[in-house]
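Bumping with the actual sequence this time:
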Amino acid sequence: MISLVRIDDRLVHAQVVVGWLEYLRCRHILVADDRVAQDEEQLDLLRMVIPEDVRIDAVEVASIVDQSGDIDAADRPVLVLFADPMSLRAAVDAGFKPRLVNLGGMHDAPGRHSWIHGLFASDSEIAAIRDMIGMGIEFEIRSVPAARRREVEGAPAASILRSPPKRKRTPGGAEGGAE
């Protein structure tokens, strides 16, 4: 079963290993990344930072859909990692349907700008996240399990993700709370 789908441009590092694996009691990581899936040396580098009893596999983004049935049927929790929102969007377009996505490490890089809660994103990445929210996928921002969970819709930049809530009229014409 999928315990968590996370976007983190560093993929596997201390926050993932010490924080998320222990919290989720995961012993399997599935990296959905074309570069890592095609380069055994990259996968070997990731293996070096995880405990020996944790299995790690890498698949190309387009083939995550083929793997998701097996993952859902598995009796052990699996952490699925994507390097960026565009890879996740490609997987979603291919039929991968996560319920919740954790936005972890999205660091400053060429083409990205400061976005929300310490994350950086390009305009196309923000648009991809907005589209996936429109498809019913929930996004949260949380670097480690102990951190306060922040929903993307509630972030200060939420206006770029969703339209502001409509105000309903109360009897007498006064505006009430959001619908």
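The tokens above came from a reply further down the thread. Residues 154-170, 174-179 have pLDDT under 50 and may be disordered.
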